[in-house]
Amino acid sequence: MDTATPESLFTLELIAWIKDNIPMLNNMEVSFDQFNNGELAISCPLEPNINDKGTAFGGSIAALATICGWLFTTLHARTRVQDCAAVIADSQLTYHAPGKGRISARCSANVPDTFFDRLNERRNAKLELTVELYSTGKEGKSPVNIATYKGIYVATP
């Protein structure tokens, strides 16, 4: 069994590969901020993701959430199967407030043993995740929770 951790697989090479293969993320100016203590955080600035109302575009929020969950799934799956692929199977996004500054997506979850067991058996493995989305407001203010995303991902060896 591999001794890799999801955090150890969060490398500059992987980030470059993602940006090369999903060009929309470059237009969004997505930053892959950190994967620490089991929490993945990615973000993007408001300006290239703005709508006609001067707030964060819903499609950008959805894309950021989807990528965050996909990467979380991919990193965990690759601790067992190096060339594992992950896809989104279902999602739901609930908006709470407009995004008025930098948008961040954060995902942390206890990945069940059944996910890893199925991958070890070279079978598809399902992972249900919640991604919380935040926006920074005026300087000195705490981030505001602007949306909650729930996604079901499937990792395929």
Q: How many beta-strand elements?
A: 6
Shape: elongated
Widest sheet: strand ordering: 1-2-4-5-6-3
- Range of helix content: 25-40%
**Topology pattern, helix = H, strand = E:** HHHEEHEEHEE
Low-confidence stretches: none
Question: Which structural category do the helix and sheet elements fall into?
Answer: alpha+beta
Average of the residue pLDDT scores: 94
Which features does this protein show?
single chain, 157 residues, 6-stranded antiparallel beta sheet, 5 helices
Question: How is this structure best described in words?
Answer:
- This protein has 157 residues and is an alpha+beta fold.
- The chain is 30% helix and 34% strand.
- The protein has five helices and six strands, in the order H-H-H-E-E-H-E-E-H-E-E.
- The protein has helices at residues 6-9, 12-21, 24-28, 58-77, 113-120, and strands at 31-36, 39-44, 85-95, 103-108, 125-135, 144-156.
- The protein has a six-stranded antiparallel sheet with strand order 1-2-4-5-6-3.
- The longest helix has 20 residues, at 58-77.
- The protein is elongated, with a radius of gyration of 16 Å.
- The protein starts with 5 loop residues before the first helix and ends with a strand.
- The relative contact order is 0.19.
- The model has no long low-confidence stretch (mean pLDDT 94).
